[in-house]
Amino acid sequence: MSERAVLRRCVTCRKLLDRKQLLKVTRDHQDGVVLVGGTGRSAYVCPNEICLDQAWRRKRLQKALRCQVPQSVVEMLQKQLNHCTIAGAEAR
Fold it and tell me: What's the CA gap between 40 and 12, in Å, rounded?
């Protein structure tokens, strides 16, 4: 029996992808905006430079989460994106 993919939409480009392929940002009811874990309202972004940049500049994350997203969260997403890019290049 195959596992069914759980689909989520990127807040920037609106592509529908498996949630494992997207970067997740969550507005946690206790800790504010978090990248790992947390329960609450979530937003997803494609793991590419363009979508991440547009999500920040056009305030897509803020609108989806209905709160202010600190610059530090975007910087951590950028590091996570860079790490994924390097790991993908090494796998080839």
Answer: 20
Say which CATH topology domain 7-91 has: Hypothetical Cytosolic Protein; Chain: A; (3.30.1230)
pLDDT tens, residue order, the chain (92 aa): 567 889 999 999 999 999 999 999 999 888 789 888 888 899 999 999 999 999 999 999 999 999 999 999 999 999 988 877 666 566 55
Handedness of CA 18, 77, 82, 84 (dihedral sign): negative
What are the boundaries of each domain within the chain?
7-91
